[in-house]
Amino acid sequence: MRKSTKFGLGAALALSFVAGAAAAENVKIAFIDPLSGAFASTGSNGLKQYQFAVEELVNKKGGVLDGRMFEIVPFDNKTSPKESLIQLQVAIDQGIHYVVQGNSSGVASALTEAIEKHNKRNPDSRVLLLNYAAVDPVLTNDKCNFWHFRFDANSDIKMDALTDVIAKNPNIKKVYIIGQDYGFGKAVAAAAVSMLGAKRPDIEIVGNELHPIGKVKDFTPYARKIVSSGADAVITGNWGSDMLGIGKAVIENGFTGPIYTYYAASDGITAAFGESGVGKLRLVSEGQLNPPVSEQSLEYSKAFKAKYPEADLSQTRITNVVEMLADAINKAGTADDVVPVAKQLESMTHKNLWGGETYMRPQDHQLIQDVHILVQSKDGVTFDFDNSGYGMVVEDTVKMASADSPTTCKMERP
């Protein structure tokens, strides 16, 4: 009888241990972005920023709920929508409920459509897409859905800020627009034409062209056309190797005016431009590294560089994704049912690490935040990019940019 009682107690303790282990299972977050190919440096840098953010901002503070830790699970999408869908299914098969992705908008479009279909068919394994860098406006307009949240300012919001700055410069009378031939590149061009026309109708668009994404090896022919057009400024949404290619070619062919960009920093771009980019390259972005806005942001940035000396904090919005998701999970009381988590994200306000307020607009799931115009410099740089000594400093700021901008989103909620 005594032996039977002892066995029962042991079994109960074992079951209790198993239950506790299950309760503490990690909250896995699939990172689906390029880790090979032309844009590998962009994806690899983003992965490091996510891994650092979850450790510093969530796990070191005890995780979420009953001590569950965040875990980033990387998947290489090779910047391919088709490959991204394969990796999405692998992630779903592993029981992952959260996906972060940013490169590119074509990939984001494929993922958000696939996730919407999956969630309708599989209510027990629903997934949220946390978009941290794909900025095609259509994703929070006609293609919006309940399962997609964008943490970056969309390209229209960024262009609104850029064109405000351009419009104030009386020396700019001719502008050349160039970009990658896909949804995002087309959206950038359309917004530039529309907004410059409204704010400075006297400005002449002397060029507006698209090139194949990730395939142009020599941008010299494009650069020569830009220089010969007499343009006073260039606008481009190019990123990765395409940003480096067009920027270097333009400057090397004698262009001396400002180049207004979305992604002209880090990933080898800052080092490649060096002194030639000082005062020329301008970047529309969120978050502020230089000068640091607080002791907390200073220490976070120092710790990141100490752990990843070869990487850059080039996508500060990643900390917003991590902190806001953790907050939403804690308030929802669950990490496994994404519906209450999504409802907590809607209308969430968040004081971010970089000194600004953020607000997740419920009608389209577009994060509203401060947008900065940065310029490449060697002076006033606390944190450089590419260990080059050069970095981006704040030149202008638009507070809570485009907070009242319209949306065509007609969201269906579960």
Structure notes:
It is built from 12 helices and 15 strands. The chain has 2 domains: 22-152 and 295-369, Response regulator (Rossmann fold); 156-291 and 371-398, Response regulator (Rossmann fold), CATH 3.40.50.2300. A 7-stranded mixed sheet has the order 7-6-8-9-10-14-15, with helices on both faces. The protein has a 5-stranded parallel sheet with strand order 2-1-3-4-5, sandwiched between helices. It is α/β, with parallel strands linked by helices and 414 residues long. The N and C termini lie far apart (54 Å). Residues 1-23 have low confidence and may be disordered. 48% of the residues are buried. β12 and β13 form a beta hairpin. The chain has helices at 2-23, 40-57, 81-93, 105-121, 155-167, 183-199, 220-228, 241-252, 269-273, 295-307, 317-332, 338-345; strands at residues 27-33, 70-76, 98-101, 128-131, 148-150, 174-180, 204-211, 233-236, 259-261, 281-285, 349-351, 357-361, 366-369, 371-377, 391-398.
Q: Quick gist of this model?
A:
The chain has 414 residues and is an alpha/beta fold. It folds into 2 domains: 206 residues, Response regulator (Rossmann fold), CATH 3.40.50; 164 residues, Response regulator (Rossmann fold, 3-Layer(aba) Sandwich). It is built from 12 helices and 15 strands.
